[in-house]
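Justification of computing resources. Each target in the renewal requires a structure prediction run like the one illustrated here; the chain below, 158 residues long, is used simply to show the kind of job we budget for.
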Amino acid sequence: MAYFKDLKSLFSHLHNNVIPDVMNNEVVDTVTQVQSRKVQEEVYDPYTPFEYNRRGWVGGLADPNNNIATFSYSVNEVSMLLQNITKGENGYYIAPLIEHGHGYKGMEYEYTQNRDGTQDQYMRSRPFISETIKYLKATMLHEDAFKRGLKRHGIDAY
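Resulting structure tokens:
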């Protein structure tokens, strides 16, 4: 157990050691798992592609390892930006296109029609990012993860 001679030392320890560790472990793990489930529900489950094979949870959009988390800290707040860095065959990041749909900021899908000439539903927005945020706000799983991480460091939070 750590002991501190004053509050300044305690806060410095929390800010420089405990909070970054908790955010990089428990919180990132929880948020990326939720996002992977939302990719499954919002992107993969609605249809099966005709022209390509999905990489799914291994190298694809649902792969938790295809995320980079960055943090910003203030006195009473920690913010996390989670970026899905999965790239398509063309070398472009695919998350914005899937989140917002065909034509978003000039981005387009390579395959725009099914074999029968009809356009598939994948052209529309499949908002896995906004659904992840909505789910986290409703369940507060990220806060529970933060509390678990603090507990791992010997700090009880209620």
